[in-house]
Amino acid sequence: MTAPTARQAPTARSAWPVPIGEAARRAGVSARMVRHYESLGLLPPVARTDSGYRQYTEADVHTLHFIRRARDLGFSMEEIATLVALWQDRSRTSAQVKHIAQTHIAQLTERIAQMQAMQRTLQTLVGCCHGDDRPDCPILDDLAGSGSGGRLQPTHEGKASKV
Questions:
Q1: Phi/psi of residue 154, each to 5°?
Q2: 161 three-class SS
Protein backbone atom coordinates (compact mmCIF):
# COMPACT_ATOMS: atom_id res chain seq x y z
CA MET A 1 0.00 0.00 0.00
CA THR A 2 1.21 3.46 -0.76
CA ALA A 3 0.56 6.52 1.35
CA PRO A 4 -1.86 9.04 -0.12
CA THR A 5 -0.24 12.09 -1.62
CA ALA A 6 -0.88 15.54 -0.21
CA ARG A 7 -2.34 16.70 -3.52
CA GLN A 8 -5.11 14.51 -4.86
CA ALA A 9 -7.38 15.18 -7.77
CA PRO A 10 -10.70 16.71 -6.73
CA THR A 11 -13.45 14.17 -6.23
CA ALA A 12 -16.42 14.04 -8.55
CA ARG A 13 -18.51 15.48 -5.71
CA SER A 14 -16.54 18.73 -5.56
CA ALA A 15 -16.01 19.27 -9.29
CA TRP A 16 -18.14 21.95 -10.90
CA PRO A 17 -20.06 22.23 -13.12
CA VAL A 18 -22.07 19.01 -12.89
CA PRO A 19 -24.62 17.35 -15.19
CA ILE A 20 -28.34 17.44 -14.41
CA GLY A 21 -28.45 14.08 -12.64
CA GLU A 22 -25.70 15.06 -10.21
CA ALA A 23 -27.21 18.52 -9.65
CA ALA A 24 -30.57 16.92 -8.92
CA ARG A 25 -29.03 14.42 -6.51
CA ARG A 26 -27.12 17.12 -4.64
CA ALA A 27 -30.24 19.29 -4.35
CA GLY A 28 -32.50 16.39 -3.37
CA VAL A 29 -34.85 16.68 -6.33
CA SER A 30 -35.43 14.71 -9.52
CA ALA A 31 -33.91 15.66 -12.88
CA ARG A 32 -37.46 16.06 -14.14
CA MET A 33 -38.12 18.68 -11.46
CA VAL A 34 -34.88 20.49 -12.33
CA ARG A 35 -36.09 20.82 -15.93
CA HIS A 36 -39.52 21.93 -14.67
CA TYR A 37 -38.01 24.63 -12.44
CA GLU A 38 -35.92 25.81 -15.39
CA SER A 39 -39.00 25.98 -17.62
CA LEU A 40 -40.71 28.15 -14.98
CA GLY A 41 -37.75 30.51 -14.92
CA LEU A 42 -36.81 29.72 -11.32
CA LEU A 43 -33.28 28.97 -12.51
CA PRO A 44 -31.39 31.09 -14.99
CA PRO A 45 -30.52 29.38 -18.28
CA VAL A 46 -27.65 27.01 -17.61
CA ALA A 47 -24.54 26.44 -19.67
CA ARG A 48 -24.45 23.47 -21.99
CA THR A 49 -21.68 21.28 -23.26
CA ASP A 50 -20.88 21.14 -26.98
CA SER A 51 -23.11 18.07 -27.16
CA GLY A 52 -26.01 19.94 -25.51
CA TYR A 53 -25.89 18.54 -21.98
CA ARG A 54 -26.85 20.95 -19.21
CA GLN A 55 -24.09 21.93 -16.79
CA TYR A 56 -24.99 23.21 -13.32
CA THR A 57 -22.88 25.38 -11.08
CA GLU A 58 -22.69 25.30 -7.32
CA ALA A 59 -24.96 28.39 -7.28
CA ASP A 60 -27.53 26.56 -9.43
CA VAL A 61 -27.55 23.62 -7.03
CA HIS A 62 -27.89 26.01 -4.09
CA THR A 63 -30.92 27.59 -5.79
CA LEU A 64 -32.40 24.13 -6.42
CA HIS A 65 -31.96 23.31 -2.74
CA PHE A 66 -33.67 26.61 -1.84
CA ILE A 67 -36.60 25.72 -4.10
CA ARG A 68 -36.86 22.23 -2.64
CA ARG A 69 -36.91 23.60 0.91
CA ALA A 70 -39.60 26.11 -0.03
CA ARG A 71 -41.66 23.29 -1.59
CA ASP A 72 -41.17 21.23 1.58
CA LEU A 73 -42.75 24.11 3.50
CA GLY A 74 -45.71 24.12 1.11
CA PHE A 75 -45.12 27.37 -0.74
CA SER A 76 -46.75 27.59 -4.17
CA MET A 77 -44.62 27.89 -7.29
CA GLU A 78 -45.68 31.53 -7.61
CA GLU A 79 -44.62 32.21 -4.01
CA ILE A 80 -41.34 30.38 -4.61
CA ALA A 81 -40.64 32.50 -7.68
CA THR A 82 -41.14 35.60 -5.56
CA LEU A 83 -39.00 34.21 -2.74
CA VAL A 84 -36.16 33.27 -5.13
CA ALA A 85 -36.25 36.77 -6.60
CA LEU A 86 -36.18 38.32 -3.12
CA TRP A 87 -33.38 35.97 -2.04
CA GLN A 88 -31.29 37.08 -4.99
CA ASP A 89 -32.12 40.78 -4.49
CA ARG A 90 -29.76 42.15 -1.87
CA SER A 91 -31.79 45.40 -1.70
CA ARG A 92 -34.93 43.58 -0.57
CA THR A 93 -36.49 44.20 2.82
CA SER A 94 -37.13 41.40 5.25
CA ALA A 95 -40.66 42.79 5.63
CA GLN A 96 -41.42 41.63 2.08
CA VAL A 97 -40.33 38.09 2.90
CA LYS A 98 -42.12 38.09 6.26
CA HIS A 99 -45.38 39.15 4.59
CA ILE A 100 -45.19 36.19 2.20
CA ALA A 101 -44.48 33.81 5.08
CA GLN A 102 -47.30 35.23 7.20
CA THR A 103 -49.76 34.90 4.33
CA HIS A 104 -48.64 31.30 3.85
CA ILE A 105 -49.12 30.60 7.57
CA ALA A 106 -52.69 31.93 7.35
CA GLN A 107 -53.37 29.65 4.36
CA LEU A 108 -51.89 26.66 6.19
CA THR A 109 -54.00 27.45 9.26
CA GLU A 110 -57.15 27.48 7.13
CA ARG A 111 -56.22 24.19 5.43
CA ILE A 112 -55.45 22.58 8.78
CA ALA A 113 -58.85 23.69 10.13
CA GLN A 114 -60.56 22.22 7.07
CA MET A 115 -58.69 18.94 7.46
CA GLN A 116 -59.53 18.78 11.16
CA ALA A 117 -63.21 19.29 10.31
CA MET A 118 -62.97 16.42 7.77
CA GLN A 119 -61.32 14.26 10.41
CA ARG A 120 -64.06 14.99 12.98
CA THR A 121 -66.78 14.22 10.43
CA LEU A 122 -65.13 10.94 9.44
CA GLN A 123 -64.62 9.97 13.09
CA THR A 124 -68.31 10.59 13.75
CA LEU A 125 -69.35 8.57 10.70
CA VAL A 126 -67.01 5.70 11.59
CA GLY A 127 -68.41 5.77 15.13
CA CYS A 128 -71.95 5.45 13.72
CA CYS A 129 -71.07 2.56 11.42
CA HIS A 130 -71.55 -0.92 12.89
CA GLY A 131 -68.92 -2.40 10.57
CA ASP A 132 -70.72 -5.72 10.49
CA ASP A 133 -72.43 -7.91 7.88
CA ARG A 134 -75.45 -5.61 7.52
CA PRO A 135 -75.69 -3.60 4.27
CA ASP A 136 -76.72 -0.30 5.88
CA CYS A 137 -73.79 2.04 6.33
CA PRO A 138 -73.97 5.61 7.66
CA ILE A 139 -70.69 6.45 5.89
CA LEU A 140 -72.11 5.60 2.46
CA ASP A 141 -75.43 7.25 3.37
CA ASP A 142 -73.63 10.48 4.20
CA LEU A 143 -71.51 10.38 1.05
CA ALA A 144 -74.59 9.76 -1.09
CA GLY A 145 -76.38 12.72 0.47
CA SER A 146 -73.56 15.24 0.26
CA GLY A 147 -74.27 18.18 -2.01
CA SER A 148 -77.36 16.66 -3.63
CA GLY A 149 -80.04 18.47 -1.66
CA GLY A 150 -81.39 15.14 -0.45
CA ARG A 151 -80.19 11.69 0.28
CA LEU A 152 -79.96 9.27 -2.62
CA GLN A 153 -80.81 5.63 -2.21
CA PRO A 154 -79.89 3.00 -4.81
CA THR A 155 -82.83 1.37 -6.56
CA HIS A 156 -82.99 -2.27 -7.54
CA GLU A 157 -81.86 -1.33 -11.06
CA GLY A 158 -78.65 0.18 -9.69
CA LYS A 159 -79.77 3.77 -10.29
CA ALA A 160 -80.13 6.27 -7.47
CA SER A 161 -83.40 7.90 -6.52
CA LYS A 162 -84.03 10.78 -4.10
CA VAL A 163 -85.64 9.98 -0.78
A1: -70, 145
A2: strand
Q: In this predicted structure, what is the pLDDT of residue 1?
A: 52
| CA quadruple 20, 25, 28, 31: dihedral sign | positive
Q: What pTM, to 2 d.p., does this model score? A: 0.73
Which pLDDT belongs to residue 155? Answer: 45
- Bigger pLDDT: 154 vs 57: 57
Percentage of the residues of the chain whose pLDDT score is greater than 90: 79
Cα–Cα distance for residue pair 86/84, rounded to 1 Å = 5
Strand residues in 3-135 grouped as ranges (E): 47-48, 54-55
Compute CA 138 distance to the chain's CA centroid, rounded to the nearest angstrom.
Answer: 34
Q: Indicate the helix (H) or strand (E) that contains 111.
A: helix 94-128
